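re the bet — no i am not wrong, look at it urself. input seq straight from the record:
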Amino acid sequence: MWAPSDEGATTWSDGGVAAQGTLAAVFVVDRADAHGGREFEAWTVSGGSALTSVLQHAHPHTPDDETRRREFVTRYLHLAARVPIVRVRFRPDPERIDALYDAFERLIDRVAVAVALSR
């Protein structure tokens, strides 16, 4: 679970261990059709597309609790508004795993530079 703060830092916890830091970006990763499409592509999304992208992979813990559901969506709304959302689509190919790794590494480096320049 994560929670945004007014200072731009984000607090998250996993298994009862809490940490705080700055979340530089969120990568929403999907597989492309194995027989078509580009090997690797990435693009940033904003506004409603950013919110939709992160919500597609989100799972509320208590979907029947209206208050918790509203809180859940509000947190993701803040995330999509404050943090760059990067959509990534790749074509799975075990023989090209090294090239895929290199593409992800270059993407992360580019995003890190862009985020650093924007601060």
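see?? Residues 97-118 form the longest helix (22 residues). told u. also The radius of gyration is 16 Å. so pay up
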